[in-house]
UniProtKB/TrEMBL annotation:
GO molecular function annotation: structural constituent of ribosome
The keyword Ribosomal protein appears for this protein: yes
Gene source species: Centipeda periodontii DSM 2778
Family: Belongs to the universal ribosomal protein uL30 family.
Keywords, sorted A to Z: Ribonucleoprotein, Ribosomal protein
Name of the protein: Large ribosomal subunit protein uL30
Gene Ontology biological process: translation
Gene Ontology CC entries for this record: cytosolic large ribosomal subunit
Domain (Large ribosomal subunit protein uL30-like ferredoxin-like fold): residue spans on this chain: 4-54
Gene3D superfamilies: Ribosomal protein L30, ferredoxin-like fold domain
Subunit structure, as described in the record: Part of the 50S ribosomal subunit.
Pfam families: Ribosomal_L30 (PF00327)
Origin superkingdom: Bacteria
């Protein structure tokens, strides 16, 4: 299964609560924190919602 590596590149200070909860549900806490997630439609939707705060790299197995 393909995965994506997500890095939080922008701060959550001053962001709406929905964006903060989305970032938390992706497993990101502080700036520059990184997680690897499965590449599913649900995860892609979350990534799109906070795309201005993160960088995404595709990992091919």
């Amino acid at each position: 299964m393909a995965k994506v590596r997500v890095t939080l590149t922008r701060s959550l200070i001053g962001r709406p609560e929905t964006q903060r909860k989305t970032v938390k549900s992706l497993g990101l806490r502080k700036r520059n924190s990184v997680t690897e997630l499965p590449d599913t439609p649900a995860v892609r939707g979350q990534l799109h919602k906070v795309s201005h705060l993160i960088t995404v790299e595709e990992i091919k197995d």
